[in-house]
Each structure stands twice: as C-alpha cells, then as structure tokens.
Design a protein that fits this description.
- The chain is mainly alpha-helical.
- The chain folds into two domains: about 1-40; about 50-114, no CATH class.
- Helix content is about 55%, strand content about 0%.
- It has helices spanning about 5-40, 70-85, 100-110.
- The mean pLDDT is about 80.
Length: about 110
C-alpha cells in the first residue's frame, strides 16, 4: 500500500468521523428543542381588564426599618399585590429587608453563566 493510498483512506476515515459527530450534534440539538417545546408550560390567555384595580392597602401596619419611607413600603406592597394578582386585602407586609449586592451578583452568576 502506497503513501497516497494510506492518505486517501485516512482522509475518508476522518470525513466519516466528522460527519458522524456533526450528525449526532444536530440530532442532540433537535432533541433538546423538541423537549423544551414539550415541557414548556402553557400560559393562560391574559384576561382583558377594563381598568386596573387600585392596589389594596395592607391590613396590618408593616414593620418599617429605618431609612425606608412609608411611600416605598406602599409601592412595594402594591407591586407584590399586582404580581400576585390579589384584589382582596389579605396581603400583609411584615418586614422589608435590603439584600446585599453580593447576594444578587451571586444569584445572577449562578443563573446567567453564559
């Protein structure tokens, strides 16, 4: 077997290997896409509201740490009520604590690595 024949066989082997690897990667990507579509939660259609309801005021007086004004507490409780979708007055904010910047940075680092 000459050098040219050996080179030809090795080139064919390399091309077959690369084709197998890329086909396997394409199949893996397709499987992941299909699984993400199957496992995706179906969100209900948003209800059309004529006018947004006013956020309920907290029933009990919230515990306010020093440095947080009552207006900020009202805004936070209104945002929680709007997020939760509650229109009744069962929401009670018991405490508001500031998180350190390191906590948020660590959370973003562990969630958004790429």
């Amino acid at each position: 077997m000459s050098f040219i024949e050996k080179l030809s066989i090795s080139g064919q082997t390399m091309l077959i290997g690369l084709a197998v690897v890329f086909i396997a990667l394409i199949l893996l990507i397709a499987c992941i896409k299909v699984m993400s579509l199957v496992m995706q939660e179906k969100k209900p259609a948003p209800k059309k509201a004529e006018a947004p309801a006013a956020a309920p005021a907290p029933v009990a007086a919230p515990v306010i740490e020093e440095g947080i004004s009552p207006e900020i507490v009202a805004i936070i409780s209104a945002a929680i009520a709007a997020y939760d979708g509650r229109s009744d007055k069962s929401l009670v904010v018991r405490s508001i604590r500031r998180k350190s910047g390191w906590n948020r940075a660590a959370r973003e680092d562990s969630i958004c690595r790429f």
